[in-house]
Amino acid sequence: MFTILIIIIAFFLFIIVASSIRIIRPWQKGVVELLGRYNRTVTSGLRIIIPFFEKIRKVDMREQVVDVPPQGVITKDNVVVAVDAVVYYEITDPIKVLYNVANFYLASTKLAQTNLRNVIGDLQLDESLTSREKINTTLRTILDKATDKWGARVTRVELQRIEPPSDVTAAMHRQMKAERERRAVILEAEGIKQSAILKAEGERQARILRAEGEAEAIKKVADADKFKLLTVAEGEGQAIERVYNAIHNGNPTPDLITIKYLEALAKIADGKSSKMFIPYDASATLGSLAMVKEIFTDMKPDKGSE
User: 291-305, pLDDT tens digit by residue?
Assistant: First the structure.
């Protein structure tokens, strides 16, 4: 009988010791309640509580995911779209999450649904389809402010899908196709326009270069003719100057003057003009010609003497 009593006492002691030992995992925190009132918060490890008087409630501190179910939302331009999202949150205060809200998961889900309808309802359909980042940021700010008193922090919100009705989707596809065709026509017209402009510009540049080349060639030919005429004129001027100096500085023989006049007359007569201009000193020239004639006459032998 004594042995049985010892066994019973040992069994009760084992139950008491077992009920007083609690193990808190690394991602958990424990809230200890003494006779129904908050007593303390314990971290991970082996923890001892008073059996039957203290109770420990574990809180997962890891980042959690709330899947917001799909729902129909009316946009600002009265189009019904199906929207669903995913909300990521983490617990920051285990005391608030246990005592300030009865069911945190359900509360956060309903809060995300209602605020998602409000955010999408303030946007046009096109804006809601292209402003995912804006919607995510706005919704995260609203949820984070609302869940702060629950001891949680919303880290990010991601929209999974926004689907308009099938008829609206078909109309959008037709609109996009028409817009792409319009852009293709515009690009093709722009290409033809640019090609014509470049071709005209090339032809204009070619004509300019060709005209510049011809002008340069004409200029070079004119320079060459000018140089030739200047050279000839300079030579003739030097010759005239020498004759002039010989006439005025010396006593040239009438033969020299006559030869120079004859050369000048030959050049004048070589042209196609029907008129002839006699030099100013024509009398002296004629006199010289007469003297030359007399000299040649005197040099001829007389036929009678032969």
Answer: 544 544 554 454 444
